[in-house]
Input
Amino acid sequence: MITTDVIIIGGGATGTGIARDLALRGIDHCLLEKKDFAAGATGACHGLLHSGGRYAVNDPEAAKECISENQILRKIGKKCVEFTEGLFVRLPGDRLQYRDNFLESCRKTGISTEIYSASKALELVPNLNQSLEEAVKVPDCSIDPFRLCMLNAESSEMRGGKILIHHKVIEIIKEKGICVGVRAEEQFSGEIKEIRGKLIVNASGAWGSQVAKMSGSDVPMTLSKGSLVIANHRMTNMVINRLRPSSNGDIIVPNETVSLAGTTSITVNDPDNLSISPEEISLISREASQMVPEFDSVRLIRSYTGVRPLLKNTSDSGDDRAISRGFKIIDHKNGMFSIMGGKLTTYRLMAEKMTDRIMEEFGINVPCTTAEKPLDGQDQLSGYPVSNRIEKLDDIICECELVRRSDVEKVIDKVGTKFIGDIQHRTRLGMGPCQGGFCTYRALGMMQEQGKVSDSESIRVLKEFLDRRYRGIRPVLWGDQMREEQLIEGIYLGILGLAEK
Output
């Protein structure tokens, strides 16, 4: 049995952020995540460190939080952030009145802006729509959510925090109506572990309501599905937004060697039962191509979807985009707190406020320092662009993302993983144009060499990874992408003999 002070359920940005904050304030804790870090909305976002511009007009409080946290994360998480900056582009038909409201709202919320003529915008991003009217520069950035979670978790572990990934909470233990611990199942071995604590924090995002119900509580949530697509190369070096009220397909984000475009907003009931329709793919591509015409013909290599865990929709509009991106802490009065809402950009602030509440419960007065202290472990990481990471080409395991053998070996040795996805999240192996088609089996071979998986386990691990990979690729299978997928299928079924296993 493990005993601790605080049990955190959820390994996304908020959960790992709380773990880091607790560690810096000297509070013992244990974090449980049923999959790997960033397995929910954190890892399924568009990798945008918001300036707040997207919310300035309709959600000024969220905008203020975003620009404040944007500036903080630029300082404490330099190896997670690419300082791309962003453009809000106004196209023919986009209302000038909205532009004026946008500029005034940005001024009031503290978001710096700079108006560019069409020619200046095209000078910065030559493949923008040539008919654009003007653009507004804002301090948007690209951010790696996986790195962010890993570094927060590292800060926790360096100070004695316990981090248990691939451990699913199956029971909340209650005594005399008070939550005193959890039982969790290790997902590979099936081992059941009991963890006892003084407080439980439900930071499980879209699964927050399910976790709360295990304790006899309720969390009022609206689940909004957002789908995105990945283009096979980096189309711009700046974040591109449409200068109009938030809608479908109006953001393009450069992310290492690829580009992400999205998103949609569709209310769903079950975060574990998601699919992407062909209509969503077409809608995103069509809208993105209004800003960057090249998007209409680019090869899409993957689609993915996640669920935004929003505050309960109380409006009559039926539009999830009208729901505030603010956050809320709920004290269930039974030894459990839930933290809900928010977004990736404001994760640190959410963690600070949640940890403040915990400190109040414990009667301890230690201030938060997460806004001043840089994230631990960044000195071991290279920055942007990805090409800066390679010294010897013969050391490469993943050609698309230039991942080195030594990087993969470090992850296998440190994490002791039995899941290819764990390597992917920590190195970007398989996140480029081939989506793991030519590097997955190499990484699996290295796992076998180090004795992390047996021959029989390796086939299971590989099939699970390929199934997950195909679910993301299937919605965008046409043209060149279809031909590449047939080649990869032939390699695995024929040359590598997977059909015989």
About this structure: Residues 314-324 have pLDDT under 50 and may be disordered. The CA atoms of residues 256 and 386 lie 6 Å apart. The chain is about 35% helix and 25% strand.
